[in-house]
Backbone:
């Protein structure tokens, strides 16, 4: 392998780590919102039309979610998407 090829692997690893961080922070925000509303994973799944196991995977940072799913979570919590995003930003910078 050439030098250029070797140098790309750390960048890929860093990017993958950042993506996992995003998933973990978003999952943490969703868990905090759920608990602050005294919702079980089952109830949140019902409100957002999700599987309960999906809620668990999202909260644990094991699943990346699409924007439309963020919208569904916000609707299930009865908040604006911008509020959910603000909570994410606050948590990701703390």
Residues:
């Amino acid at each position: 392998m050439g030098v250029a090829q070797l140098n790309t692997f750390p960048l890929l690893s860093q990017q993958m780590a950042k993506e996992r961080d995003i998933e973990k922070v978003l999952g943490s925000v969703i868990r905090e919102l759920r608990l602050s509303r005294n919702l079980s994973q089952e109830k949140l799944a019902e409100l957002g039309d999700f599987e309960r196991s999906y809620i668990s995977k999202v909260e644990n940072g094991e699943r990346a979610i699409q924007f439309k799913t963020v919208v569904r979570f916000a609707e299930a919590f009865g908040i604006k998407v911008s509020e959910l995003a603000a909570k994410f930003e606050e948590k990701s910078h703390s």
User: Anything to note?
Assistant: The chain is about 80% helix and 0% strand. Residues 3-36 form the longest helix (34 residues). The CA atoms of residues 3 and 9 lie 11 Å apart. The helical segments are 3-36, 41-48, 52-59, 67-77, 81-92.
